[in-house]
Amino acid sequence: MEGQSVEELLAKAERDEADKLQRITVHKELELEFDLGNLLASDRNPPTGLRRGEPIPEAELRALARDNTQLLINQLWQLPTERVEEALVGGQFARLKGIRPKKKTNLVWDEVSGQWRRRWGYQRARDDTKEWLIEVPGSADPLEDQFAKRIQAKKERVAKNELNRLRNLARAHKTRLPSSAGMHPTGHQSKQELGRALQVARVSTASVGRFQERLPKEKAPRGSGKKRKFQPLFGDFAAEKKSQLEMLRLMNSKKPQLDVTRAANKQMREEDQEEAAKRRKMSQKGKRKGGRQGPGGRRKGGPPPSQGGKRKGGFGGKMNSGSPGWGGKRKGGQHQGGKKRK
Amino acid sequence: MDSLDRVVKPKTKRAKGFLEKREPKLSENIKNAMLIKGGNANSAVTQVLRRVYALKKPYGVLYKKKNITSPFEDQTSLEFFSKKSDCSLFMFGSHNKKRPNNLVIGRMYDYHVIDMIELGIEKFVSLKDIKNSKCPEGTKPILIFSGNDFDVTEDYRRLKCLLIDFFRGPTVSNIRLAGLEYVLHFTALNGKIYFRSYKLLLKKSGCRTPQIELEEMGPSLDLVLRRTHLASDDLYKSSMKMPKALKPKKKKNISHDTFGTTYGRIHMQKQDLSKLQTRKMKGLKKQPVERITEDQERKSKRIKKKLMELGKKLVSL
Question: What's a single GO MF annotation on this record (chain B) (predicted)?
Fold first, then answer.
């Protein structure tokens, strides 16, 4: 019983396959000759239905053409394929279509004002915001202000262009725009995100937040105020003498002023952050480009050259009172930090 | 003509590029076609020329003015044109009482005419009569030749070769499967050649390969073969010569048999077979248990030996 059903299934599968292929199969007595590089097919079969009579029906010719084309297409589809992104570069499209570059004049005759006006720019010939009569289109709300609508559209266009320009600039200089990434209120923002949003909101006034009052229980923001403080030129002589003697004492002492463990940990944390950021960027780029081969340099990339500079910078920053005398000790610290990492 | 034979030294980069485009290369540029109107070209012939020009768009030149020449009598003007516009294919249309609706297709080698075939247009149905359809430009057409007449006579064979050369378009290594747009169909039957062009529609079939539907597009011509001027065999052969650098390099030590298997030949130095390292048979490796028992056996053997020696000594004592 089971054997019979298996046979039936197989027969049914075969019939299904044949049905599927029926639409593309063509029966010919002699095989055609194909030249796939030239997209050419030569049919040697004598055209049977067409021999009699002078007037050849177009339908017969068309059927013959269709059959032969189907066979050629079957052959073509058997060739190995790959998916390629298509982009025409270097003016290929224009050359293909036979489009020639047209020269446009700078000035255009403006009937309305009766003078030659610019094609674009200040006091241009056809400025749609300057029209005194606008017909209300049939589909629009009759109480809508069409003039205001045009002015609003223009403002939006200008703002969009400005945004794109700044984005291009940031991309060119490889800096990051201050993004409004976490600023739109969702229901689920963390305390940090809300705090950040609050900070940004406070500073986004014309006076950059100088005259903003704090909320009742809001704490003073830390890290505001002047970034660097300089001592006055003529001041406390005693304090100055004390600080200078202290510096000399430090220079003479043998103990290193650098806390090696702290410095190494800070360095490690910095490196980890950098790598995480790079990985995030790479995965983002990979998703965006759909897994296309990114620039090879990025993929193979070892530590970017800036990292070496950063390393030096980091150490230099720590040693505010540093002097070249500590150079050797500094390097010693670095090595130790490396060992600790492993 | 004299000015064209003079060797010009380029003074600008643009001129240099221009001359470089025209000079002979290892793999030549795509052949350009020039479409010329003869002395009394009538509207049918002009329409055909314009249509063919549209098909060959970036690689063709259409001369708008009428040129009173006859290709079969005098080929110098054709050669002059081809030198000037760097075209190696041409199509010349004319009309007179003796040969109505005449079309001469030909090709050049080294700016000299080698093949020329004259065809008469018997019936011509233009684009406008069929439907207002857009002509595809710059795409590679599918060429179909039906009927066994194309192999019977030498004339027909050359005609087929010429038509392929004329209409095939640029040589590419890859094609975009969705970009196949139109089909040119030539049928040789009863001494006539039916030229039809169809637009290609790919329909869904059950499997990956689509089902083809054709829609009539473009001009349909019924052609009759008139005079021919074919190149002699040795001239033809010399024109087909491929430069040595382009010939595919034969790989040594590789052979194929009839079943498609590829065989390679390796040349080895003489080996000392006694010093070969054969495969390590894992099964023959000593298990740790075995090793222990072996050690124990060895130990017990040694102990036994010692005991025996001692025993002998004792006995001797």
Answer: rRNA binding
